[in-house]
Sequence to fold (139 residues):
Amino acid sequence: MLEVNHEILIPDSELEFTFVRSSGPGGQAVNKVNSKAQLRWNFAASAALPFPVRERFLRRFASRLTNTGDLLFTSDRSRDRLQNQQDCLDKLRELLLLVATPEKKRKKTKPSRGSQLRAKANKQRQGQKKKNRSGSNWD
Fold:
């Protein structure tokens, strides 16, 4: 069971792992050991996510889903199968944590009176600087 937070728990039955041969260095064993982990999670058929979290996930990560609604993760950071499997689970947990809490609504604010006065003074200073460059005061 993958525990994302107190309200999101994904059962192991929804997670499908396959192991394939990893690319890169590894010596003689690289061609005979399947240590690269591939995690497939059918997001579309999953009942583990609450509806608001599901909507936020679709809005943010729809491009990561396959046509059948699967989410794929791979890891070959380590030569150990279990570490790569745990890395895939961590990647899934990170994505779900990003959308687990709703985004805060932005409060509209107005510039303060002081900042408006400072901006106006700065603008007048810049204008005066350019006016002084014109050379009209030269004799």
